[in-house]
Amino acid sequence: MRSTRHLLLLACLLLSAPLTALAADPCPLLRAQVDAPDPATRLAAAACEEHLLWHRPFIDVEGRYAGSTVREAETALLTNGEQAWRRVAGYWRGAGQLSQLQHRPGAYDCMFAPTSSQPSPTCRSFLVDVPWSAAFVSWVARRAALPGFNGSPSHVDYVRNAYRSPEASAYRVADPMAARPARGDMLCYVRAANRVFGFAGLATLLSSEDGGLGMHCDIVVGVESGQAQLVGGNVLDGVTMRLMPLTAGGQFAALAQRGLDDPPCSPDAPQACNANRQDWAVLLQLRPANELAALSLSPGLHVAPPPMPVVPDVLQPGQSTPRQQTAPCCVECSAGDGLPRCPGV
Questions:
Q1: For 40-96, what is the HEC assignment?
Q2: Which residues in 81-100 are b (16+ Cβ under 10 Å) and which e?
Q3: Tens of pLDDT, residues 26-63
Q4: Is 143 helix (H, G, I), strand (E, B) or coil?
Q5: Cβ neighbours for 35, distance < 8 A, ≥ 6 positions apart
Q6: Other CB atoms closer than 10 Å to residue 201's CB: what's the count?
Q7: What is residue 109's three-state secondary structure?
Q8: Largest alpha-carbon pair distance within the chain?
Q9: pTM of the model
C-alpha cells in the first residue's frame, strides 16, 4: 500500500513538472541531417554535429554551467578521437579566415594543424588569444552551404550585413524581446563592459558606424516543449549548448538582460552567476527556404579556402632574422580596448 502511494506521488510530481524540464535534446537526431534540403535543418545539424563531438557541455535554463569536459587548446580528445585544439584550428581554416589574420602570431601554424604531427604551441596560443566564436558560426554556415551568408572573424560584420542589406542577406534582424525564435536563427549579445546596447542601441550603432564591436552569437537548433536549445562556439572554451525557456507564445521567457550595476559573480553574490544574463541585442531570423534559394552562395563556399602566403614564424633556411612581430590588434573589438581593429577584419 505504501509503495502504491509512493508511485502515485511520483506520477503526480512528473505530471506537474514544467515542460522545459522534459524538452529533449534535438542534436542526436539532427546530427545526421547535414545534407537535408531545408537550409535551417542543415545549419542546425552542422552545429549539433559539433556539439556532440565536444561531449555535450551545456548551460541550463538558470544559467549554470554543466558538463564541460574538453578545452579549446588541449590535446584532450573529442568523441571522434580528434584533439580539441586541432578541431578549433579546423574551424578557422575551414571557414577560410586565417588569411585575414596572418599578422597574428600562430595563425600561419594553424593552417597545418590537421597534418602536423606535433601540438603547435604557437597555434594553440592563437586559439586561446583570438576569439573563435564567429569563426565557428562561419564554419557551420559553410558546412551547411547557407546562401547569402558572408562569414567573418567578427560577429558584428554579418549582423551589420543583415541590418543594412536584408535583401541580400540570409538573415533579417529582429528584437529578441519580441520575436519568436526558430531553428536556424541566431541569438546575439554585445560584449561591451562599459555599455549596455539592447536592440535599439545596437540598431543605432549599425546604422551609423562601420567599426568593430565585441559580440557573440549562438545558433538556434531546437524550439519545442517550452524550451529553446542554442549551440555556440568558444563558450566554456568549447562548443556548448545553451538552454533557454520559452513562453506559451514561443518567445523567449524573461530573457535575462545584463545591467551596468550588476554585481560580479562571486561566492558573495551567487545570484549574479548566470551565464544567460547578457546584453541580448538582436535575433537574426533565417529567411524562408524559398527566399534563400534566390540568394547566391558566398565565393568559395563549396571549395577549400586558398592557402595563406608563406610567412614563417620560425627561422627557415636562408633566413637570418625572425619575422618582426606586429603591434597587437583586436578581432572582436569593444570600446575601451585601446587597440586598433585588425587589418582586413
A1: HHHHHHHHHHHHHHCCCCEECCCCCEECCCCCCCCCCECCCCCEHHHHHHHHHHHCC
A2: eebbbbbbbbbbbbbbbbbb
A3: 999 999 999 999 999 999 999 999 999 999 999 999 99
A4: helix
A5: 42
A6: 15
A7: helix
A8: 88
A9: 0.82
